[in-house]
């Protein structure tokens, strides 16, 4: 049985910490595609932590992980983009709220994958719109630079999400479905 997204216990805190650390530590790995923008495989972790543990855990893991990465790589936090990572993971975690979606027990259907795809793509572009507007209006960044960054990041994040994130969630649930019929004989 899935736990409530609002039930906090040691496992929840540890999961957020592990997700944040994994995302923060791996976000520096990427292929440059535009000014200050990279294709980052770590985006798949946002889908994994969001879908498997819910939107709250996903949001906090993405936000904290991005903050960690910013400190490690530049020493300065870009708050619009850090919040954007959290927003992306939260949207990807909306599939967790489906009553019959439970990847820990192997319960995943094609309709869940479609929901994850829709929520994830909407989340990617909503978070990038937020991050871009934040940079323009709060940070004073030039509009043309932000447009290039957000469009490039949107395409790159979508590709990583579809190619790595969704299959990882599906494979996790399928693995658990295959293991649910095991019994222990005494």
TrEMBL record:
Q: Which domain of life is it from?
A: Bacteria
Which Pfam family name is an example for this entry? Answer: ECF-ribofla_trS
One cellular component term (GO) for this entry is: membrane
Q: Which Gene3D superfamilies match?
A: 1.10.1760.20
Matches recorded under InterPro entries: ECF_substrate-spec-like (IPR009825)
Q: Which terms are listed as keywords in the entry?
A: Membrane, Transmembrane, Transmembrane helix
- Residue stretches spanning the membrane: 12-31, 43-65, 77-97, 117-140, 146-173
Protein name, entry field: Energy-coupling factor transport system substrate-specific component
Q: What is the lineage of its organism?
A: Bacteria, Bacillati, Bacillota, Bacilli, Bacillales
């Amino acid at each position: 049985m899935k736990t409530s997204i609002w039930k906090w216990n040691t496992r929840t805190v540890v999961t957020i910490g592990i997700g944040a650390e994994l995302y923060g530590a791996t976000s520096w790995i990427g292929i440059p595609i535009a000014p200050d923008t990279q294709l980052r495989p770590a985006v798949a972790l946002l889908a994994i932590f969001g879908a498997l543990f819910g939107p709250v855990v996903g949001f906090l893991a993405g936000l904290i992980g991005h903050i960690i990465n910013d400190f490690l790589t530049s020493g300065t936090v870009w708050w619009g983009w850090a919040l954007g990572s959290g927003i992306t993971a939260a949207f990807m975690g909306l599939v967790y709220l489906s009553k019959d979606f439970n990847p820990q027990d192997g319960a995943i259907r094609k309709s869940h994958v479609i929901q994850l795809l829709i929520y994830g793509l909407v989340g990617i572009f909503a978070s990038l719109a937020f991050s871009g507007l934040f940079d323009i209006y709060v940070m004073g960044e030039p509009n043309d630079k932000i447009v290039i960054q957000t469009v490039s990041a949107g395409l790159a994040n979508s590709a990583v999400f579809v190619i790595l994130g969704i299959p990882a969630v599906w494979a996790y649930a399928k693995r658990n479905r295959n293991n649910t019929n095991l019994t222990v004989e005494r």
